[in-house]
């Protein structure tokens, strides 16, 4: 399952706010004034954070909109921690953790949750592996018992290894192998970062390396990474403080202690292995795709002061209608879609990307010329305008307000931040940090990343369509 990052949740909510779909209950504070004015001065979720004696960090968010709870356990290890030659092992292990533990039989975890009217699932990202359940509030003890049991004593039965390997290979085939765009973006990422760089390997793994994973490899990864000191638990919902802490301490406090494990991630390459990738795919029936990606710092690596300004830059450059790329390419009739992406809440380096889907009758070279000319114009003008920065901050702040409504939003955002080593205030006071971003800071971030950073570009084209010459800044 695809993880929901804070950036993704707030971006989606900001688009809803821009479209005028903010719920009335959120549109005004109790006194009748718009709440965005003071949103930055109070925590988004009001989470309580404690560390149990065994090292597990636990965050509790009390929400009583409905009599349900969301129970999320994060391991501070994702695809970026896969050992060389064993890409996909974190994801493989995620699957195997549904094969039973000391007190829960194989497959029984999900059956028990379903019998209680709840749902459960898991996901692997580059930074974390997460397991979650949504259940009626009185069933918190059940899922806490089963999840803590799984962390303490997962069986990972060797007899079920090969059947699950085939499930994963089929998953890879369906999600990546059957999709020209998924294959292209997988290859593009490897071309930019290196096929065996932690950032360049697919989270699901290269096919030959999935086939090479052995039972002892899975056991070694589990024993090294699945320890309380290397995990985060976040629970949100209709449970009160004292009762909650007693229940969680009883269940999760019994898991044997274990330390945090440092992430030994390589720095970004000093030269892009393959700066230009062009692929023609005969299966492509829709539009082509153009992408440009830059190495970028995050809140945990590189010039961290640029992380928040890059969030604003992403929005004003390619964050939906009104963004610079949208006006230059979609409103002009050259493209059917544009976008920009960046996530600063990652472990180690990130990337800043723009993508364009041209109209079928538009020459690829024209699209690349206009897209890169828009980036160059921003740089040549010394950055965006004050009005652009204010608009982006306003829309993204509205997204933060809308994020309060979802039961799973707080666990995913808080757990993801804590698991990469960021303080809880990173999430709780994100609107405050955002509102502090200035035009000059956005301009400096644009110069450092888009103007001076290493980058790669690529095209996915239908069969027979010639690749345009690369446009460099």
Description:
The structure is a single chain. With 473 residues, this protein is of the alpha+beta class. It has two domains: 35-179 and 193-252, 2-Layer Sandwich (Cytochrome Bc1 Complex, Chain A, domain 1), CATH 3.30.830; 276-406 and 428-462, Cytochrome Bc1 Complex, Chain A, domain 1 (2-Layer Sandwich), CATH 3.30.830.10. Helices cover 42% and strands 16% of the residues. It has a six-stranded mixed sheet with strand order 1-2-6-3-5-4, sandwiched between helices. A five-stranded mixed sheet has the order 7-11-8-10-9, sandwiched between helices. Strand 4 (119-124) and strand 5 form a beta hairpin. Helix 13 runs antiparallel to helix 14. Residues 12-34 have low confidence and may be disordered.
């Amino acid at each position: 399952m695809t993880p929901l990052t804070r950036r993704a949740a707030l971006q989606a909510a900001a688009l809803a706010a821009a479209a005028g779909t903010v719920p009335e209950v959120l549109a005004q504070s109790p006194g009748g004034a718009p709440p965005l004015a003071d949103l930055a001065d109070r925590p988004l979720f009001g989470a309580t954070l404690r560390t149990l004696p065994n090292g597990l960090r636990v965050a509790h968010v009390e929400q009583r909109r409905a009599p349900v709870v969301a129970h999320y356990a994060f391991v501070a290890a994702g695809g970026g921690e896969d050992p060389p030659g064993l890409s996909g092992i974190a994801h493989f292990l995620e699957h195997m953790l549904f094969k039973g533990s000391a007190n829960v039989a194989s497959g029984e975890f999900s059956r028990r949750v379903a019998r209680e009217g709840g749902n459960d699932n898991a996901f692997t990202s580059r930074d974390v592996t997460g397991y979650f359940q949504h259940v009626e509030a009185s069933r918190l003890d059940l899922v806490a018992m089963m999840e803590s049991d799984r962390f303490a004593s997962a069986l990972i039965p060797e007899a079920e290894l090969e059947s699950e390997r085939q499930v994963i290979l089929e998953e890879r085939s369906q999600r990546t192998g059957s999709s020209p765009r998924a294959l292209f973006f997988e290859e593009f990422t490897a071309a930019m970062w290196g096929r065996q760089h932690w950032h360049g390997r697919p989270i699901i793994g290269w096919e030959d390396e999935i086939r090479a994973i052995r039972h002892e490899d899975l056991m070694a990864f589990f024993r090294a990474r699945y320890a309380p000191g290397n995990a985060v638990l976040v629970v949100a919902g209709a449970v009160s403080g004292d009762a909650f802490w007693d229940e969680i301490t009883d269940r999760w406090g019994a898991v044997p202690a274990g330390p945090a494990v440092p992430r030994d991630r390589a720095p970004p390459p000093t030269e892009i292995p393959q700066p230009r990738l062009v692929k023609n795919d005969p299966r492509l029936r829709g539009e082509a795709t153009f992408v440009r990606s830059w190495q970028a710092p995050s809140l945990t690596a590189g010039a961290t002061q640029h992380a928040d300004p890059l969030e604003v830059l992403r929005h004003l450059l390619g964050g939906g209608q009104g963004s610079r790329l949208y006006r230059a390419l979609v409103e002009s009739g050259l493209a059917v879609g544009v976008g920009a992406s960046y996530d600063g809440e990652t472990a180690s380096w990130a990337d800043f990307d723009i993508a364009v889907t041209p109209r079928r009758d538009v020459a690829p070279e024209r699209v690349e010329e206009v897209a890169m000319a828009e980036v160059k114009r921003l740089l040549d003008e010394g950055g965006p305008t004050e009005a652009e920065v204010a608009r982006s901050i306003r829309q993204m702040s509205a997204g933060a307000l809308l994020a309060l409504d979802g039961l799973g939003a707080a666990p995913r955002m808080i757990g993801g931040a804590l698991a990469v080593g960021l303080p809880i205030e990173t999430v709780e006071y994100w609107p405050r940090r955002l509102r502090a971003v200035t035009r000059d800071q956005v301009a400096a971030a644009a110069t450092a990343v888009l103007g001076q950073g290493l980058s790669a570009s690529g095209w996915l084209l239908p069969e027979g369509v010639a690749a345009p010459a690369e446009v460099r800044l």
